[in-house]
Fold this protein.
Amino acid sequence: MPDFPKRDLKEYVDVGHSELENHLRTQNAQFQSVLEEAYAGRKLTDFLWLNIFGFAFHYLKSRFGPRHPYQFYPSGDDTGVYRMKADNETTFIALLSDWASDTPESDRVGAVVASHKPDYSIHLGDIYFVGAPSEVYDNFISPTASWPRGKWGNLVLSGNHEMYSNGAAFYKMLLPTMGVRVNPSDGSIYSVVEKPSGGSMIYEQKAGFFCLENDYWRVIGLDTGYTSVERPFVEILSPPDCHLRKEQVRWLKNQLHLENPDDRRGIVFLSHHPPFSAFRTAFPRPARQLRQLFGDFLRPVLWIWGHEHRLVGYQKREVAGLPVFGRCIGHGGMPVEIDLPKINTESILFYDQRRRKNLRRIGIGYNGFAGLKFDKETLNIEYRDVEDKVVVSERWTIDIQTGMVDKME
Ligand SMILES: [Fe+2]
């Protein structure tokens, strides 16, 4: 597959949330690349095929065609629950969200993450504009792609943009490049990037959700992307609510047992969509579903999400009865929004509103990522920007006697 030319961050300013507009933008980006290479005589034909027929075909197929079948665990002997590398040693996980824009900015964030040599790298979703095969390839797979591969593993969640093209490239192209290895000699499961050797096997990521855990913490990736889009007409009667599909709920119940009072590990949820927001429409239904799964053993959770292109930390609050410390890190690779919050402004603990530059006369902020360092009961989180400066750092702790996660001042 050819590498399409790098995109300019300007292309992403003011991108709307409709599938139609995002398909048009993908088509236009591909057309521009053909224009740059084509002979003059070919341009009209290329334009017709790529912009009109190509666009109409892909858009209609995506809007009216079936979504890629939902994938879930168990899948063979893969349960989707993996031990972090060498149990209980310090583990560094890099989280990037809304990063896959294939711009100089996303390259720079990728390079900064790579310089920290993450054990695991996790993308919280949204490949722009529509998660097309060329977009998956350019961001994650091409030899020049800047996805900062984790030494021990790479995992991805789906956002809404992957589903704008029915999720086919997400499931068929991207997941097989994310690796998980089982080491049968000691029963541990490790995620690695290397080729299999000795008696170990590589497990490809098989679903849009997973759990990485050690004796103190569980990092649980939730799939809210698959249910974030709906077919035309159906979406009017039943607007998408990002709910956890029954297969995922069954996995949470049967593999993770969140209600078990003997398992007091700290819970860190990851998802693309926000359960609440001070800025835009949020999606509380997954929180309601999770609340039920906790049963009588209710305890606070740390929940990190993307979707909104900004860095925000919220005060602890209840969402559908679930106590949540919420963090939004959707500032990975898109123009970062720095506008004022609209609602619940008092709920904000921190918000990176620094203006980096103007694009099309709109002030945009700093891209960045979150680095999570797990060290027994302690979890240090550093929110770093594209220049590798620490914007905010936090120290969390899990009381393994009670299962209570809290922030240390
Ligand atoms: Fe999104």
The pocket of fe (ii) ion is lined by residues 126, 159-161, 272, 307 (CB under 6 Å).
